Amino acid sequence: MTERPRLYAAEGLVLRRRPIGEADALFSVLTAAHGRFVAVARGIRKPRSRMRGHLEPFTYSRLLLARGRTFDVFTQVETIRSFPRLQRDLVPQAAALYAAELIERMIPEREPANEPLELALAVLEALDEGELGALRWFEVRLLQQAGFGLQLDACARCGGELGGAPPFFAAEAGGLLCERCRRLGMAGLLLSDEAVRVARAAERRSLRQYLALRRPAEAEAQLGRALHAAYRHHLEAEPATLRYLEDVLVLEQRRPRASAPGV
Amino acid sequence: MAHDVPRDPVEELIEQLRKLPGVGPRSAQRIAFHLLHVPKEDAEALATAIIEMRRRVRLCSQCCHITEADPCRFCSDPRRDRSTICVVEQPLDVFALERAGYRGLYHVLHGVLNPLEGVGPEQLRLQELLRRVQGGEVREVIMATNPSLEGEATAMYVARLLEPYGVRVTRLARGIPAGADLDFLDDATLTRALEGRHALEG
Questions:
Q1: Chain B residues closer than 8 Å to A101 by CB
Q2: Architecture of the domain defined by B78-199
């Protein structure tokens, strides 16, 4: 115990900030070596705090931490990379909040998190470029990394062949069911072959390759419903930010086209 | 536990004080015993102040600011600019903007969007704002929520919500605080400050 150095350095992505006490805040960060953890920044809500801007959610920063009793304490922070659009563009930000919540709830604390960190940075980078399609890819990959990868090639329940009927997805089983197993009455939804094709592409291709593929809107939406059911099953609740994201998307669809950004 | 058993009055007070923000069990005890020893009138003045505050203060039916009279003194003041509404997170922000010399109308949201903590649009006083904007008198809505992620999200959400009504939605400028050192600023703040630069009067 006494051998452990008091200070340690890490590079971390800020997932979430929660005010505590008079002027402090707790931050949930995701790092490669130390995994996901919560640490406290003292006095960060005072206007003169030098750490403020470097710990905004979705900022990737170089961190120096001191071990504390309940929470470790940030002593120095410096931005490595920020995603400006996630701070000032409603829809990409709502999508990023949702991605951050999924990571927080699916990735265990203090376990090395090389891959989840890469995944998180990749999805934030794409959202920062306005690529909302990256969300499906992220949802598929995060399930995989958390050990709940979708079973798409054989029956998720009996392991048998799927057969020729339209794909049937059961969140509880974690994937598609064969014709026999789906008669057992598990809740689920029918998917198009296109939706399954998109899911496979998300599993196997890099984000860039995936985004370059043709992905029909209806297939993406279907896959989205299946993935949301899968997350609901694993988290035993609806992610809090999903409703907000859907709200924001509705507002976006109602927008007069003429005032769309960049047009 | 057993609610019907009459509790010792000192214990009861400690229990009530503990519910206050920033007051732990130790502070609650200290305050309770302090109130036991101050002149009786002082303690009663505190009790009366709390009761009166809760009895008389309510939300303005127009701007949702805390007030005794409805509409509040800002909404009923004929000298104020009625074409501008400044939207703030909480009543305290109104006082800050008054000090800064703002003389339009206000709208208090009583919170900010915080989807992670389950605070969505329906928990804020947004319908009231929408009604005022639909009234037609308003030409500009100034979003004066804090420059935090939640404040920014709220500002953007309101801007999007009001888009169909043709009002101008503006945002407080964001940049370098007075007395700061440039080399200590984070990139995001400096970027914003650059974007928001303005011509110097020659």
A1: 115-116
A2: 3-Layer(aba) Sandwich (3.40)
